Amino acid sequence: MTGLYLFAAAAGVPLVLWFMLSGDDDGGGDAGGGEGDGVGGVGGNAFVMFRRLPLGTVAFVAAAFGICGIALGLVGASRGSTFVVSAVAGVVAGVLNATLFAYLRRSESSTDMSDGQLSGKIGRVVLPVTSDQRGRIAVTVGGQQIHLSADAVPGSPAELQVGAAVLVVEVRNGVASITRLDPELG
């Protein structure tokens, strides 16, 4: 039994660490394919299983099962109780993982803002803008800082250095047209 716990921990813990460090919230629950692309064939049983149990959840189940089994084995618990408690710990870890990430997916917020809403905002240059080279600016909107690529409007000073206050004249396709803001206004 110790071998089973070691295997589960050895397989589950690295996967859990990978998901935590890579930012993948569910381990790619699509089993690597789109609609109708099953593992081992279109709509196969493996595809259905991985749609219901994403790899991230499987990793949490295996890690909890393995770690709990190893820990209980080290303290001398009986084989039967070790298996039952480890299985329960694995199921609880899997349910918590799936529930938490389902909640997070439902409650995602968006800070999407239309290009027109950025017009007239005051920002600061974070990468220099010249008449022949695009730079970047930072604009604070709703308490969040947004970075945009920026071009100087025709007729504005030849170069806008880092830290210069600028006015966003308009935004098209995610690129801001900017001009230097008078120092007394910025």
Summed up, what is this model?
By secondary structure, the protein is of the alpha+beta class. The chain has helices at 2-22, 45-52, 55-74, 79-106, 115-118, and strands at residues 122-127, 129-130, 135-141, 144-152, 159-160, 165-172, 175-180. Strand 6 and strand 7 form a beta hairpin.
What would your notes on this structure say?
This protein is of the alpha+beta class. The chain has two domains: 2-106, no CATH class; 115-180, Beta Barrel (OB fold (Dihydrolipoamide Acetyltransferase, E2P)). The chain contains five helices and seven strands. It has helices at 2-22, 45-52, 55-74, 79-106, 115-118, and strands at 122-127, 129-130, 135-141, 144-152, 159-160, 165-172, 175-180. It has a five-stranded mixed β-barrel. The protein has a two-stranded antiparallel ribbon with strand order 2-5. The longest helix is centred in the middle third of the chain and has 28 residues, at 79-106. Mean pLDDT is 77; it is low at 24-50.
